[in-house]
């Protein structure tokens, strides 16, 4: 990407308006150009047919419209789930998963190239963080998948590669662009943001009252055991994390979802279930149990019977629990696996 040119797709409408005013253009031009970018989704300034040649020239001198390209597409023969490996403008690769539900088409987007959180059960963090993604790179996953599938995305989860709250400002900008009524106009009520538990950022997010669903990867309610699988637990204790979640619920009025990857023999005992019940009792929350995907090199495996036993134990304590349906298991849809395999055999 040309360093001197600004990424025009990462600008909000007020920011674009400010830039155009500085170039001596009238304010209404910003709305017109924003529509070309975010509604008609053109890939070059030349396609903006109602903009003068002079202004188009000026735009191409000052800005760039970034693109991402699908270098691989896997389609599940079981349920139609599609997994894309996208090459970003600098050649780095990330993954995006398109899922078909009865009520809506949903997208799981990535927010970073790699991840520095190092959760032991996750392929995305195996080689650490390469870099943060820009707002436009997050948004282009939505635009590209809609273009490739011809289907409109009705809900979105930020559960792909990366920790979105570790890329806080760009994530918030992405959500602003995504929900802008002059663009994609997706209500943030249909967005779920997943975090491994960055307590300070959860509190910052609560301040913004965006209306999205916060999804917290807990995976163990015991501090010492959580530290064994999630290094972030050495920074923030389970008590600190739960306190931030309670605060989030109080300030936003939104229920928090707790994710719990059930790993055979690691965090699925009745003692683990009791500890989890004790930590979450009385909190306006939902628990999503995830039968863990096996990732090469971790030695972790799933045990469907123990997942069911775990669910029943929590339900006896009147907690609301579901088991996440596994989609796209025949195309290796777990986060980070496609990128990891591709990078190993063909560094992008
Ligand atoms: S689970 Fe999320 S936070 Fe943890 S390493 Fe993977 S991508 Fe990062």
Strand order of the largest sheet: 3-4-5-6-9-10-11-12-13-14
Uncertain stretches: none
> In total, how many domains does the architecture comprise?
2
**How would you describe the shape?**
globular
Secondary-structure arrangement, i.e. CATH architecture of the largest domain: Alpha-Beta Barrel
Structural class: alpha/beta
Roughly how many Å is the radius of gyration? 21 Å
CATH topology of the largest domain, which one?
TIM Barrel
Q: How confident overall, as mean pLDDT? A: 92
User: What profile does the largest beta sheet have?
Assistant: 10 strands, mixed
Outline of the structure:
The protein is an alpha/beta fold and 348 residues long. 35% of the residues lie in helices and 20% in strands.
Polypeptide structure, described:
By secondary structure, this protein is of the alpha/beta class. The chain folds into 2 domains: 6-64, Orthogonal Bundle (DNA polymerase, domain 1); 69-345, Aldolase class I (TIM Barrel), CATH 3.20.20. 35% of the residues lie in helices and 20% in strands. It contains 11 helices and 14 strands. It has helices at 13-22, 28-38, 53-62, 135-149, 168-179, 199-208, 223-229, 238-252, 270-280, 304-316, 337-345, and strands at 6-7, 63-64, 69-75, 82-87, 93-100, 105-108, 112-114, 129-132, 153-158, 191-195, 213-217, 256-262, 285-291, 321-323. The strands form 3 sheets. Strands 3-4-5-6-9-10-11-12-13-14 form a 10-stranded mixed beta sheet, sandwiched between helices. A two-stranded parallel sheet has the order 1-2. A hairpin with a 6-residue loop joins β3 (69-75) and β4. α1 (13-22) crosses α2 (28-38) and α6 (199-208) packs parallel to α8. Residues 115, 117-119, 122, 124-125, 161-163, 196 line the site of iron/sulfur cluster. Iron/sulfur cluster (SF4) is lined by residues 115, 117-119, 122, 124-125, 161-163, 196.
């Amino acid at each position: 990407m040309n360093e001197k040119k600004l990424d025009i797709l990462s600008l909000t409408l007020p920011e674009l308006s400010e830039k155009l005013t500085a170039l001596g253009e009238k304010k209404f031009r910003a709305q017109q150009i924003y529509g070309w970018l975010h509604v008609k989704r053109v890939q070059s300034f030349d396609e903006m047919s109602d903009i003068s040649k002079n202004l188009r020239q000026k735009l191409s001198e000052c800005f760039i419209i970034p693109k991402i390209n699908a270098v691989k597409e896997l389609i599940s023969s079981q349920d139609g789930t599609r997994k894309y490996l996208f090459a970003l403008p600098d050649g780095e690769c990330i993954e995006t998963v398109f899922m078909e539900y009865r009520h809506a088409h949903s997208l799981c987007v990535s927010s970073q190239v790699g991840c520095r959180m190092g959760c032991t059960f996750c392929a995305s963090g195996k080689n650490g963080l390469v870099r943060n993604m820009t707002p436009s790179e997050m948004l282009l996953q939505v635009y590209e998948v809609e273009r490739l599938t011809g289907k409109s995305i009705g809900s979105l989860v930020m559960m792909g590669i990366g920790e979105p709250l570790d890329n806080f400002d760009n994530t918030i900008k992405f959500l602003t662009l995504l929900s802008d009524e002059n663009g994609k106009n997706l209500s943030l009520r249909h967005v779920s943001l997943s975090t491994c538990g960055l307590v300070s950022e959860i509190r910052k997010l609560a301040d913004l009252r965006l209306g999205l669903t916060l999804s917290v990867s807990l995976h163990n309610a015991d501090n010492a055991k959580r530290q064994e699988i999630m290094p972030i637990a050495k920074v923030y204790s389970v008590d600190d994390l739960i306190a931030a979640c309670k605060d989030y619920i109080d300030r936003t009025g939104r229920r928090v979802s707790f994710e719990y990857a059930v790993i055979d023999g690691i965090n699925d005992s009745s003692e683990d279930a009791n500890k989890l019940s004790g930590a979450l009792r009385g909190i306006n929350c939902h628990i999503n149990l995830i039968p863990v995907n096996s990732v090469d090199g971790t030695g972790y495996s799933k045990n469907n019977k123990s997942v069911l036993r775990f669910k029943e134990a929590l339900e006896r304590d009147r907690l609301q629990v579901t088991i996440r349906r596994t989609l796209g298991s025949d195309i290796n849809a777990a986060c980070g696996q496609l990128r990891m395999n591709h990078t190993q055999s063909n560094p992008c």
